[in-house]
## 1
Amino acid sequence: MALDPHLVRALHISSEDRQGAARDPAAAHHLFQASTIAALMDARYDGDMTVAEVLAHGDLGLGTLAGLDGELVIVDGVARVARVDGSLSPVPPSTTTPFAVVTSFAPGPPVALGALAHDALLERLDALAPGPVCAVRVDGAFTRLRLRSVPRQSLPYPPLGEVVQQQAEWEAGPIHAVLVGFRFPSEAAGLEVPGWHLHAAATDGSTGGHVLVADLAEGHVRMDVADEVHVELPPGVDLTAADAAMREGIRRAETRPDAG
Ligand SMILES: [Zn+2]
């Protein structure tokens, strides 16, 4: 893979027995990831890691659930799932995930943000980002959120490119919400969603989802640089799919022209 040298140094890919791993499961400034976005693109929707195991590696993050059953959003160590009806509900710890990214969020000081439409918000996040790979949390009042989720899939699983054709999109706002997510460089496509990947949870718990548009009225952002990325590959998943998916243009399915 044509990976950025900085990222290669930071990247640890493992398919070893997780119980035998000697690393600190939740060290500061480490990202932990279950599987790869390319495996997800390739319809690997079941995974073998539970949400409880993911939460042992961090308290802020995002992902999906087995069978692609909604959008996983993890805030303050609480995992919830946004489904196609726009609801946000707690995830039983034994639920498995085929793809998740988490970190033990250890941010720098909060930075106040004024009114920023979606693209301007992402530009501001880029300007504030402490490194090429980072975690972010935005708490604020939003004039508009456009969110999406995907319906649970049944076997035989169609590829993600087909599933997103069935995705549900809806709008909320004005609304108070938390956005959580990560930024990865474009060189990481295949392993990760390049650019900003954000999931939202309304402060009142009324809705959440994968963020397509977030127009901020006012709020504050906190960021945490990641100096190590640990990718745990499920049995049967290797990096071949990540490499292939990179070439096939992963952005088409996971991001949209209006999503950034
Ligand atoms: Zn997402």
## 2
Amino acid sequence: MDEIKKKPLVGLSLAQLREVAAECGMPAFAAKQMAQWLYEKRVETIDEMTNLSLKARARLAEDYCVGRFAPKMEARSVDGTVKYLFDGVGGRDIEAVYIPDRERATLCVSSQAGCKMNCKFCMTGKQGFHGNLTTTDIINQVLSIPESESLTNLVFMGMGEPMDNLDAVLGAIDILTESWGLAWSPKRITVSSIGKLKELRTLLDSTRVHIAISVHSPFPQERLQLMPVERVYPVADVMDLLRGYDFAHQRRLSVEYIMFRGLNDDLRHADALVRLLKGTDSRVNLIRFHAIPDVDLKTTAESAMVAFRDRLNAQGVTATIRTSRGEDIMAACGMLAGKDRKDD
Ligand code: SF4
């Protein structure tokens, strides 16, 4: 079989690897061996799985490949942030961003090529939707960057709305957290969402990962101008759902709030945000807006961000101003745009 048509093993769960073992006439315990080669030893070829018999490896290689693929381009920021470009789907490349910060090393992964949500402030939203990534595509971002072994944290905050591709995201979380996979604590993972209710509930019920919700305005009509999804999933309903979960122990709820000058950055908004978040045990990340072409939104002054933060803190809501990273390589929040392969 042509190498390109072979099915990838990376991205498969232990249960799926058991099916592969059975299909290839291997004993059931070979599934665990394969998982160990893929996720612990991180091999790139079936030949390297040396505790599988030669015959088993040959049979496996008839239909399968490991399925790892390296990033095809990278851009390095002066602040140490690195943006990696991977082959995506639908003719669009996708980006993952490596963010070193003292003892932490975070990877921001993409879950879709493009996005359907069309948030006004986001370059990914501007390019439309081009397809869902598979679990293989997501895990490959983690395994195939040069800094893979030193990663401490993972955030699903790259291109796409993770709740719009929930099965693939749950598959990736499984591989990241299970003992047969990378065996990470779920506390090292944060999934960001605009708040698709049914999928968010499934994520909350089936994992222990941290959650980040994009709010950006406490007022429905204003949020609608920024995020068309407000029409379908009002932020008040999202908060009602989140009040039913415990974010005081074990897991964390963050509220993402991009600040736009003259639009959502005065103290009236801060007070309304406090009311909206009442009873949620959340903390607020205030994010600087980075101008993008053809969008009439403006960056808030530092002094207004500080005043907004102080107002939240004074009312008992923990708020911090997130340091912007990778602006010079277009890797900061809202700036990911991938690349159209037709341009290559
Ligand atoms: S901010 Fe997130 S949900 Fe909104 S368009 Fe961009 S990628 Fe999609």
